[in-house]
Amino acid sequence: MKLHPISHFFLPNLHFPQSTDLLQGIPVGLSFGSIPFLLKAKLSYSQIAIFSLSSWPYSLKLLWSPIVDAVYTPKLGRRKSWIVPIQILTGILFYLLGHHIDAMMNPPPLAVEEITTAGSDAVHHVPIYALTYSFLMTIFFCATQDIAVDGWALTLLSKDSLSYASTAQTIGLNCGYFLSFTVFLSFNSSEFSNKYLRSVPQEYGVLGLGDYMKFWAWMYFLVTAYLVFFKEEKNVQDNEDLGIKGVYSTIWKICKLPHMRKFVFVLLTAKIGFICHEAVTSLKLLEKGFSREDMALSVLLDFPLQIFFGYYAAKWSNGQRPLKPWLWAFYGRLACAALGMLIVAGYPQNQHPVGMIYFIVIMASTILSSFMSTIQFVSISAFMTSIADPIIGGTYMTLLNTFSNFGGTWPKFFVLEAVDYFTKNTCSIPNEKGEYLSCTTEVGKDYCSQMNGTCQLEKDGYYIVGTLCVVLGFFMLVFYIKPIVRKLEQLPRKLWRLDSEKD
Q: How far apart are CA 210 and CA 99, in angstroms?
């Protein structure tokens, strides 16, 4: 019996790529999901923007990918030479952070006198820069591991199965993201723990962030031990003769291809239209009173849909127009961004928890947005895999993924900063110096309340920035991105490789 092409991946090669992708998803879920949610009560959007910089290594891994692709120990293997030490280092960092993260995230609150001196936007002494540096290093390790895994996957999978590699990556990463977001936030919540897991209510959840990180530190060690002793790597010749300098030179030549320059510009700008929605909308709902446990529930509902529809998105992307799903989902993500602003604007005041109808609307909107994102990810990844030049192995994939990831990373910092810049929210009663202080954080709101004042929101920068993003994204899609993408996907595959220059 002839197996479906995807079976070549899901049978013999399933355990390695997905286990490593799952491990990558653990810190990614914390950095991109849980940590900002936990910090929102103490930080302004500008301060969360600082922490968002910790995700940049995932979008800049191209800078060191040639080193990962070219330097290795033959005895251990080209990819294992990097995956093994990186996973050990990540496990060590996770274990060390596990002993200190709870104290860093929950320092003693400031006294009223200290708030008066420091300003109403004081942040409970949260060491935001130390947190950012710590997770920046963690994401750097994950990005380096991802370079090696991408290169190994290209040699593990059959030619017919390459278009399904992105689906498997989606499953692995989302498993880790799901555990670090939905599962962790639920068990970390005192409300969830007291309602379902305890007979005697307590102030904290059953699972602390420190214990969670220490558990996964040991999982990193165990998976690495399995990889060392039970997983062999075939010696596949790809760019062994190029060397580091040759790989950098090859990357530069690829970037100079006329069609590649157009593709790179699309990747760097395509996510501007919905970046405000994906970076701020969930935090706005939390700010208005929606529980983070209910927000994380959307990931639980969305998880099986991503697996199911991700597979069919890969099939859809396997035709004559591989980027057609990507373009359709682009419209969907813009629509979800506009819908997100309407949902935030219509949030029921003084109602906790929200009614069932509004809860369903939030869940449906969140799942729909994530679904559109999954379609785009699978479609663009399948297209990248199909045009990748095997002469430099995983580095070509890393080149393309770098620009795609950075397109969703670089705008986030500026969007979060802009939301605070355009927001005007002040306390109705001045402090002892006669100053009307801002109350953009929970600390400022508490201080204003202690002064018997109220926080007056005169202008919400979220709607200004969100509207600008959607309008700009729509016009870019219609008048630039769509025409360019239709031309690029029709190009012969050989034109994406350097040897085409010789023809």
A: 6
CA distances from 294 to 37, 191, 280, 303, 398 (A): 12, 11, 16, 15, 35
- The residues spanned by each domain of the chain are 13-423+460-502
Rounded to an integer, what distance in angstroms lies between the CA atom of residue 152 and that of residue 163?
15
Please tell me the distance from the alpha carbon of residue 285 to that of residue 283, in angstroms, as a whole number.
Answer: 5
pLDDT per residue rounded down to tens, the chain (503 residues): 333 333 333 334 445 555 677 788 899 889 888 898 888 777 888 888 999 999 899 888 888 888 887 788 888 887 888 989 999 999 999 999 999 998 888 776 555 555 544 444 444 567 889 999 999 999 999 888 888 877 676 666 555 555 555 556 666 777 788 788 878 888 888 877 887 788 788 888 888 999 999 999 999 999 899 888 877 776 555 544 567 787 788 788 888 877 888 999 999 999 999 999 999 998 898 888 887 777 767 766 766 776 676 666 666 666 667 788 899 999 999 999 999 999 999 988 766 677 888 888 988 898 888 888 888 888 888 788 778 776 665 667 778 888 988 999 999 999 999 998 898 888 877 766 666 777 766 667 767 777 777 778 888 999 999 999 999 999 999 999 999 999 988 888 778 877 655 54
Residue range 13-423+460-502, CATH number = 1.20.1250.20
The rounded distance, in Å, linking the Cα atoms of 453 and 41 is: 19
